[in-house]
Design a protein that fits this description.
Structural class: alpha/beta
Helix content: 25-40%
Strand content: 25-35%
Number of domains: 1
CATH topology: Rossmann fold
Strand order of the largest sheet: 7-13-10-8-14
Shape: globular
CATH class: Alpha Beta
Number of helices: 7
Radius of gyration: 19 Å
CATH architecture: 3-Layer(aba) Sandwich
Number of strands: 15
Order of helices and strands: EHEEEHEEEEHEHEHEEEHEEH
Distance between the termini: 37 Å
């Protein structure tokens, strides 16, 4: 039995942070960072059966062309993704009444698709494009606390990147869902996303504070790993994808990050209408689902 201090439930039986009951989610979940973007997705639904709000977590459940979908806001950062992924998994794979993990034959695998904004690292990944993340590279510390198993290629990339950036810790590298990427990523840029533990210094931005490595962005842009599978480079960065991919692998869920490119750090551009770029990604994803 899982103690109440570990599996925390609200008085109505809902999971602690998301404030959701098992019936409140579908098996396909669209996640967005901004709580205000939930309605930007659900306005395309034919009907909405549930709306819930708790802290930064806003949830709408409804139907799009007969398919039941959940859209959920997460807030920013892999610390929030740790909450979201663990609590979504608990909703489908833990018996709240008995406080026990369901046996393997009863466990469900969710399909979780992140619809987020991102900045490009490369001049040839233009503002206004949509990018599907193949590998995510975590520069955060989340996987220091979980037994993530990486492939040989992933470990090689992580080791080389640690050396290239002169990091005092090892990054982690995780491949996302091939199944979802094949279904949803047609015509999009295929890329490898760096997940950063912040928006300013960790993404190479300097306002009043100097960076420890003035050439940090250039090191990310120029990084390449050669293997039998071809050349690996870093295409864009944001603040959540690696947490999604790593926890998805650990928990057994299919996870894909789709990125609306609203800035290009190589050219110094920012999208004139970032909301339109995001909305195009939302509509494209819904149609393909």
């Amino acid at each position: 039995m899982i103690p109440s201090s570990e599996l925390i439930l609200n008085p109505d039986g809902s999971i602690y942070h998301l404030n959701l009951l098992p019936d409140h989610i579908s098996d396909t979940i669209l996640t967005v960072g901004d709580p205000g973007r939930v309605a930007q997705v659900s306005r395309h639904f034919d009907s909405v059966e549930f709306e819930g709000t708790h802290r930064e977590f806003v949830t709408h459940v409804g139907y799009y062309r007969g398919k039941r979908l959940t859209v959920l806001s997460t807030g920013m950062g892999t610390d929030n993704i740790d909450i979201v992924m663990n609590e979504l998994d608990a909703l489908v794979n833990i018996d709240f009444m008995a406080r026990t993990v369901r046996p393997p034959e009863e466990r469900l695998s969710l399909r979780i698709i992140r619809l987020g904004t991102s900045g490009s690292l490369q001049a040839d990944v233009p503002v206004g494009s949509h990018l599907a993340t193949e590998h995510a590279v975590g520069l955060d510390s989340l996987m220091q606390f979980y037994p993530l198993m990486e492939t040989g290629l992933e470990t090689e990339i992580a080791t080389q990147l640690q050396q290239s950036l002169a990091l005092p810790f090892a990054p982690y590298v995780v491949r996302g869902s091939d199944l979802l990427r094949e279904q949803l990523g047609a015509g999009m840029v295929m890329g490898n996303t760096v997940t950063c533990p912040g928006f300013y210094g960790p993404q190479g931005r300097s306002l009043r504070l100097d960076l420890r490595q003035p050439d940090y962005i250039a090191r990310l842009q120029n990084f390449q790993h050669q293997s039998a599978e071809g050349a690996f480079r870093l295409s864009n960065f944001e603040m959540e994808t690696a947490g999604y991919y790593a926890l998805g692998r650990l928990l057994g869920h299919e996870v894909l990050s789709l990125n609306a490119i609203v800035a290009n750090r190589a050219t110094g551009e920012f999208a004139e209408n970032a909301a339109a770029v995001v909305d195009e990604l939302i509509e494209k994803t819904l149609q393909r689902l």
